[in-house]
Specification:
The structure is a homodimer.
Chain A: E1 9-11, E2 14-16, H1 19-27, H2 32-39, E3 44-45, H3 46-52, H4 58-70, E4 74-79, E5 85-90, H5 92-123
Antiparallel strand pairs in A: 1-2, 3-5, 4-5
The structure holds a DNA duplex (20 and 20 nucleotides).
DNA sequence: CCGGATCCATAAGGATACTG
DNA sequence: CAGTATCCTTATGGATCCGG
C-alpha cells in the first residue's frame, strides 16, 4: 500500500492512476452501490430490484446492471422461458466487496448521528 | 444493519434513503475519494494536492474541498499571511473513513490482478 | 417480463482569464 | 498562493414509446 502515483493501470478499457480509483469507479454514481447492496442478500430479478429501488428507472437499472456485468461484479443469468426470466447475482469479486459496503453503511450511520448532533448544537 | 428502506434521512441539506447512500455520496465522483486518500498522510496545502493529483483543475480541487469541508470531512485552516497559506486536513469523521479507503484500495489491487488474468485467458 | 431506442433537460467538468 | 468568474463541452439521467 502506497501513495497513488501515475502508474497507468488499464482495466475495463479504462486507464486509472491507482487501485483506489478502480474501486471507486465500481461503486460510482447514484445506483451501482445500491444495486450491489441489495444483491448481497441473494439473487434478484429485474422486477425485484425495481421494487427495492423504486426511484430508479428501467433504463438506469439495465444500464448499471450491464456495467456491473461488464466489470465482472455481477452475473446475469437468462432463462430461455416465456415470459423471460433473468436473474442477477454477485460474482466472487462482487462478494468480496460486501464487507466494505457494510463498513460504509456503518460509517454512514455514525456520520448521520454526529452531524445531526452538531446541527442541534448549532441551533441551540 | 438492515436493508435500505425509505427512511428519509436528512443530512447536509440532502435527503437520503439509507446510510449507505450517505457514505457513497461523500466518496462520490472522480475526485473526492482521491483527495481524502492523500490527506490520510497528513495535512496538505492546495498546491501540494495539485502536485499529487496533476489531472485535477484548480476549479475542481477548490469545489471538492469545499464540499468535503461542508460535509465535515476535512478541516480548512487559513493563515492570515502574505502570500496566503491554507491547509487541509481530515476531521475526526474523515479519519474514520481511512480504514475503509484502504480496504477499497486493497480490493482494487486484487480486482486488477483478477481481471488482467481473465483478459490473458481470453486472448490465449 | 425484460428490456432497447430515441429525445431532451440538467449537471458535471474543463479551459481560460483574472484577483486579493 | 489560493483562489473567482465566465464560458463551453460533455456526461448523466429522465420520459416516452416500441419489441421479442
Amino acid at each position: 500500500m502506497s501513495v497513488c502515483e501515475s502508474c497507468g493501470i488499464r482495466v475495463n478499457n479504462q486507464v486509472y492512476n491507482c487501485a483506489f480509483q478502480v474501486a471507486i469507479d465500481v461503486l460510482d454514481g447514484k445506483w451501482k452501490g445500491l444495486i450491489l447492496w441489495y444483491l448481497q442478500f441473494g439473487t434478484k430479478r429485474n422486477s425485484e430490484l425495481r421494487r427495492l429501488i423504486p426511484s430508479i428507472t428501467q433504463k438506469m437499472l439495465t444500464q448499471k446492471l450491464r456495467e456491473l456485468e461488464d466489470e465482472g461484479i455481477v452475473y446475469r443469468t437468462v432463462y430461455p422461458v416465456v415470459p423471460p426470466k433473468v436473474e442477477y447475482s454477485l460474482t466472487e469479486q462482487g462478494e468480496k466487496l460486501i464487507p466494505i459496503l457494510k463498513s460504509l453503511y456503518e460509517w454512514g450511520e455514525d456520520y448521520i448521528v454526529e452531524r445531526q448532533a452538531e446541527d442541534k448544537a448549532q441551533t441551540a
